[in-house]
């Protein structure tokens, strides 16, 4: 929301009031501060009359985290829903307040907040409590409220139905400071200079709209900000005032948290304490997902032909997905298989499991109901659908004719919806694609729960929807075996993995914008991410498909999916099957490495992929600008190919890097340009890495990650090793690999044949029972 007209003036349709003075500072428990801030300087007693104030509460949350709440009128109701904070418990707190000639300071862990005591001054500084280094600040005219339209007299405010009221805050943006995150955003990676509205929308991947809006961002200055508001939130990121980041919400209150790192990994870890850690996903979910695609014609015979075709080409399919038309047309989503196309779905899945051992099945669902279905009448009669304010069921003809929306604020509706899911589980469905959840109305609606604000429900609906489905999967299959394929999300939804990148076009440009979206989501607390390999809209050219295969198989999760055309490789060209087999096999071999990182992410909050380069190299200024490459875990650098020529220019940070496919080395920091055939991609291994791989030819993702291992060791140019954790296919720790004094130590019981390769040299093989090896 822009309130200004340039630097000096304000827009004529707004009246803006600022906290101009800190008139009073009260101290509370744990050093909390409450500031009474008039919107004019108090120069005499008479100045207190006809004078608005803003109350600012500065409170310790936990070590290195402070919350700030600004209110105009404190009597305004705060309706739900609200983000559930501290789902794993609130950590300990070390905080204290002190006074000095400079002002009043609240210190929380290593973060300090000082309110200036200078007369008639509004200035709040955030600093490192140990070094006193500046982090950011709230300077003059940085917190306040605005009316639209501007009232001509305070008397008019007796009827607030005629006015919109906004609260806003602005913190300083330092010279060269950059901002990242805010959900899965497809616009430029660094958000400085952008206007961002956090409002979930089904807008594809090539605009400022986003499916997954998360009110959290990371600054290159060493802090993160979580805005504790599910409702639509507007940010002006160096776009209204180039030296400030402004956040505004409609209402009488705005609350946010400042999270001090100082490095980006620590910021994400602390954010995950506040909003929740990414949940564990089953190892089978890391395999190749094959979809029927969206509007394609398919039935049981089609499904069988796809799986047979993949088997003939020695390409393993680990999850098969039935998209929308497993349902009857006009009936979406009533959970009834189309009898014409799938006369006996339970028997079908049983036959396929017998033929393709270990395969899992997924079906597409959404939270909507077309009124052609008898299930719509059942849900409407029982009051399970969202209503308009006049008592009608809320409906429109967008997406499905007469579509209604399941009201998840109604506990009975939730139980009913879960009963429909349980039918799918009985049929043989293992996981669910929870599509949609973005187009949630926020006007002329009456939710079952009268304590919720419709504007907050718009974004928060995605949390309720995915939590309900995820919990149902956990109840049926076990806490660690649940997995979704979700499109919509908001803060905290990382607890219900996983998410994919939505409807992208079948172009190189869409591939690059999808990568930017995945990077931003990873910086918003989400550990896992996938993308429609080949693009969703249109039929990809053969080169686009093959380049996307390499990229998609080097994400945490990998799915072939399209709109009106199939994504099986033989529908593209003859070479595509070979390329797909190459990268599926590679991913299968990488599972000991990938799944260990998956388990670590459940504690750290870090993305497995896509992991922004600056998470691993925060002291390298160049790393903060890189949006066409990423880290897969902490040791593998991936740079997808985005052109038909096969050329890539990528950046290698300091240290020695080894190309996975060829073994050649480069020493950074440097830019390199390479050309790759379709069966290759820039995949570099970081120095000091001990990389465990499954055996050559492995086509499973669920296997014994301690058996028949190949261990590749990449020695550093200086003694800087990273210990590699080993887990089993259930995610349980089974030991570690490390190097001490030039000796590889295998602190785990490894079974079968063991192969060790050092810096690309000829491997030493069949090292059964070896626990120490000189490098």
What features would you describe in this structure?
Among the domains are: 103 residues, glycosyl hydrolase (family 31) (Immunoglobulin-like, Sandwich); 284 residues, Glycosidases (TIM Barrel, Alpha-Beta Barrel); 136 residues, Immunoglobulin-like (Sandwich). The radius of gyration is 27 Å and the shape is globular. The mean pLDDT is 97. The strands form nine sheets. Strands 4-5-6-7-21-18-17-15 form an eight-stranded antiparallel sheet. A six-stranded antiparallel sheet has the order 3-13-14-20-19-16, with no helix packed on it. The chain has 775 residues and is α+β, with helices and mostly antiparallel strands. The chain is built from ten helices and 41 strands. Strand 17 and strand 18 form a beta hairpin.
Question: Which key phrases capture this entry?
Answer:
Immunoglobulin-like, 41 strands, 775 residues, alpha+beta, TIM Barrel, globular, 8-stranded antiparallel beta sheet, 28% strand, 6-stranded antiparallel beta sheet
Helices and strands, with pairings:
Elements: E1 4-5, E2 9-10, E3 15-18, E4 24-27, E5 33-38, E6 53-62, E7 65-71, E8 95-100, E9 103-108, E10 111-116, E11 124-128, E12 134-138, E13 143-148, E14 164-172, E15 179-183, E16 194-198, E17 213-219, E18 223-227, E19 233-237, E20 244-250, E21 253-260, H1 264-275, E22 288-291, H2 300-312, E23 319-322, H3 345-355, E24 360-365, E25 368-369, H4 374-381, E26 404-405, H5 411-427, E27 431-434, H6 454-477, H7 508-522, E28 532-533, H8 542-553, E29 558-560, H9 574-604, H10 613-616, E30 630-632, E31 636-638, E32 647-659, E33 665-675, E34 683-686, E35 689-693, E36 710-714, E37 724-727, E38 733-740, E39 743-748, E40 755-758, E41 772-774
Parallel strand pairs: 22-23, 22-29, 23-24, 24-27, 28-29, 36-40
Antiparallel strand pairs: 1-2, 3-13, 4-5, 5-6, 6-7, 7-21, 8-9, 9-10, 10-11, 11-12, 13-14, 14-20, 15-17, 16-19, 17-18, 18-21, 19-20, 25-26, 30-31, 31-34, 32-33, 32-34, 35-36, 37-38, 38-39, 39-41
Helix pairs in contact: 5-6, 8-9
């Amino acid at each position: 929301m822009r309130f200004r007209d340039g630097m000096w003036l304000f827009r004529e349709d707004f009246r803006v009031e600022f906290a101009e003075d800190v008139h009073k500072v009260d101290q509370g428990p744990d050093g909390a501060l409450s500031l009474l801030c008039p919107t004019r300087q108090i120069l005499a007693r008479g100045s207190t009359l006809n004078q608005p104030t803003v109350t600012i509460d500065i409170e310790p949350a936990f070590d290195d985290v402070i919350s700030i709440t600004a209110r105009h009128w404190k009597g305004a109701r705060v309706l739900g829903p609200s983000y559930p904070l501290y789902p794993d418990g609130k950590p300990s707190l070390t905080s204290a307040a002190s006074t000095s000639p400079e002002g009043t300071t609240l210190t929380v862990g290593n973060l300090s907040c000082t309110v200036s005591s200078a007369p008639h001054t509004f200035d709040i500084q955030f600093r490192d409590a140990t070094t006193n280094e500046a982090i950011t600040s709230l300077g003059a005219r940085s917190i306040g409220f605005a009316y639209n339209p501007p009232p001509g007299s305070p008397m008019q405010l007796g009827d607030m139905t005629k006015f919109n009221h906004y609260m806003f805050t602005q913190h300083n943006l330092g010279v060269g400071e950059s901002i990242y995150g805010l959900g899965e955003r497809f616009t430029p990676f660094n958000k400085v200079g952008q206007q961002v509205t956090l409002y979930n929308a089904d807008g594809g991947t090539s605009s400022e709209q986003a499916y997954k809006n998360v009110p959290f961002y990371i600054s290159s200055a060493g802090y993160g900000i979580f805005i504790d508001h599910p409702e639509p939130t507007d940010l002006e990121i160096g776009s209204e005032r180039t030296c400030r980041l402004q956040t505004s919400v409609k209402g009488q209150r705005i609350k946010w948290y400042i999270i001090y790192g100082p490095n980006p990994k620590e910021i994400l870890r602390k954010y995950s304490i506040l909003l929740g850690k990414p949940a564990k996903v089953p190892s089978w979910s890391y395999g190749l997902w094959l979809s029927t695609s969206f509007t394609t014609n398919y039935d049981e015979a089609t499904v069988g032909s796809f799986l047979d075709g993949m088997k003939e080409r020695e390409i393993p399919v680990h999850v098969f997905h039935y998209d929308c038309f497993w349902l009857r047309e006009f009936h979406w989503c009533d959970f009834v298989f189309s009898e014409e196309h799938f006369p006996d779905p339970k028997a079908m899945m049983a036959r396929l499991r017998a033929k393709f051992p270990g395969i899992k099945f997924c079906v597409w669902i959404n939270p909507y109901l077309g009124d052609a279905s008898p299930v719509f009448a059942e849900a409407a009669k029982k009051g399970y659908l969202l209503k308009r304010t006049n008592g009608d069921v809320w409906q429109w003809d967008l997406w499905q004719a007469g579509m209604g929306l399941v009201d998840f604020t109604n506990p009975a509706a939730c139980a009913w919806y879960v009963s429909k899911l349980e039918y799918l589980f009985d049929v043989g469905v293992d996981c669910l694609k929870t599509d949609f959840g973005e187009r949630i109305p926020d006007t002329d609606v009456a939710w079952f729960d009268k304590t919720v604000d419709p504007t907050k429900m718009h974004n928060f609906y995605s949390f309720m929807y995915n939590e309900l489905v995820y919990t149902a999967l956990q109840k049926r299959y076990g806490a660690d075996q649940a997995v979704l394929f979700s499109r919509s999300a908001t803060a905290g939804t990382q607890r219900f993995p996983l998410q994919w990148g939505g409807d992208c076009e079948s172009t190189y440009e869409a591939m690059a914008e999808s990568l930017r979206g995945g990077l931003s989501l990873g910086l918003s607390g989400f550990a896992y991410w996938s993308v429609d390999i080949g693009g969703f809209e249109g039929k990809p050219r053969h080169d686009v498909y093959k380049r996307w295969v390499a990229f998609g198989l080097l994400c945490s999760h990998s799915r072939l999916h399209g709109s009106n055309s199939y994504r099986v490789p033989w529908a593209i060209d003859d070479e595509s099957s070979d390329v797909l087999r190459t990268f599926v096999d590679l991913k299968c071999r990488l599972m000991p490495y990938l799944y260990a990182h998956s388990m670590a992410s459940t504690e750290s909050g870090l993305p497995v992929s896509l992991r922004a380069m600056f998470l691993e190299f925060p002291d390298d200024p160049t790393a903060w600008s890189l949006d066409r490459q990423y880290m897969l875990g902490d040791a593998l650098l991936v740079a997808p190919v985005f052109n038909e020529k096969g050329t890539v220019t990528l950046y290698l940070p300091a240290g020695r890097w080894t190309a996975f496919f060829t073994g050649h080395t480069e020493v950074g920091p440097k830019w390199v340009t390479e050309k790759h055939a379709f069966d290759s991609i820039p995949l570099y291994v970081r120095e000091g890495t001990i990389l465990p791989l499954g055996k050559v030819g492995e086509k499973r993702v669920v296997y014994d990650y301690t058996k028949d291992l190949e261990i590749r060791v990449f020695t550093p140019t200086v003694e800087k090793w990273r210990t590699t954790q080993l887990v089993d296919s259930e995610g349980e720790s089974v030991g570690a690999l490390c190097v001490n004094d030039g000796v590889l130590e295998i602190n785990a019981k490894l079974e079968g044949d063991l192969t060790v390769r050092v810096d690309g040299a000829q491997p030493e093989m069949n090292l059964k029972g070896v626990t120490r090896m000189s490098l």
